[in-house]
Amino acid sequence: MNAPVLFEERAAANGMRFGIATLNSPQTLNGLSLEMVDLLAERLDAWARDPAVALVVLQGAGEKAFCAGGDLHGLYRSMTENAGKGAWGNAYARRFFEHEYRLDYRIHSYPKPVLCWGHGIVMGGGIGLMMGASHRVVSETSRLAMPEVSIGLFPDVGGSWLLNRMPGRIGVFLALTGAQINTADAFFAGLADFRLNHEDWPKLLASLEEQPWAGQAAGGAEDAIPPRSINDGLLRRALTALEPQTPLEGGHLRQHSFMINSLCSGNRLDEIYEELAGLKDHADPWLARAAATMLAGSPGSLRLSFALQQRMRLRSLDDVFRAEYIAALHCTAHGDFAEGIRALLIDKDKTPRWNPAVLDMATEAWVQKFFDEPWPEGQPHPLDDLGKEGR
């Protein structure tokens, strides 16, 4: 049986090394399981402590995807096995979301450069891994999305933080419609830093072996340039040396950004919903498909996604992860998450029976329960320590 994550270390000419972690489940588009999360976390911690490791590379096996999401089959099994036990009664879901969110936050705060190769499909859990990387690289094959509205969840893995930091109101649009964006729009939305032709990825890895990566400053001189700064610069130089010269094709998101900002400018979800629903017959198939996805999606997910963006607008990343953890556990107990997975992946009838069935029933009062702490009174939040290291 193949290992779910492959780890490799390559030596540079000066003796420094860089680590490569490869998600190794191409048959599931490298969907992120709990085992994969734990393996990644353990190795990232080891590489962070190793002074001879200059940087870390994250990639996915196969040609189709970096990572298309989380372990939906495993979460579905846990939800069916623990039905009726409440939001705190599903031990697997508690572990999965806690470990995944800790890993995502670890990447955001990692002490060394992290290069993420976001080729092909990058969705859901893949967005969580990629967005914290210091050097986020896309190719001509990249397709990014947070399509959780179609499975009864919400854009988690820090999505409530990330979407709020996109230009204008495009974060609201992407959350409600699950729209896929291409390479050009990944830059426009702030989801990518560099681009590389897919065929040039092996060349980049080879060039990393030639870089004079910095280790600990010799003698600890106070005026020495920190190794992190040097290595960030070397990695940037290696990436820009292979940057394609061909101009990027335009993206639908940027093309329609003025209209999207106008349609999503309000503070009432029902009004935004009606505005976006009007795009279902738009001449641009991308906009029409976005509207159709929203109309077919979970009304409860629409309300929860919108509420999270409103409530988390000025919150820190660690606070966002704590709020998303609570909401995710509630989704496993009394939301549409299990039904969405059933309709899409289990029975594959693509006819989910959402509850609430319409947006009018998914009110602001209804969504409040997704923010209530589900654990026993007096117990600290499982992610209480997140962001407090070194304080």
UniProtKB/TrEMBL annotation:
The keyword Isomerase applies. One of its GO terms (molecular function) is lyase activity. Keywords: Hydrolase, Isomerase, Lyase. It catalyses: 3-hydroxy-2-methylpropanoyl-CoA + H2O = 3-hydroxy-2-methylpropanoate + CoA + H(+). One of its GO terms (cellular component) is cytosol. Pfam families: ECH_2 (PF16113). The keyword Hydrolase applies. Residues 19-371 form the Enoyl-CoA hydratase/isomerase domain. GO terms for biological process: L-valine catabolic process. It is an enzyme of class 3 (hydrolase). InterPro entries: ClpP/crotonase-like_dom_sf, ECH_dom, HIBYL-CoA-H. Its EC number is 3.1.2.4. This is 3-hydroxyisobutyryl-CoA hydrolase. The lineage of its organism: Bacteria, Pseudomonadati, Pseudomonadota, Betaproteobacteria, Burkholderiales.
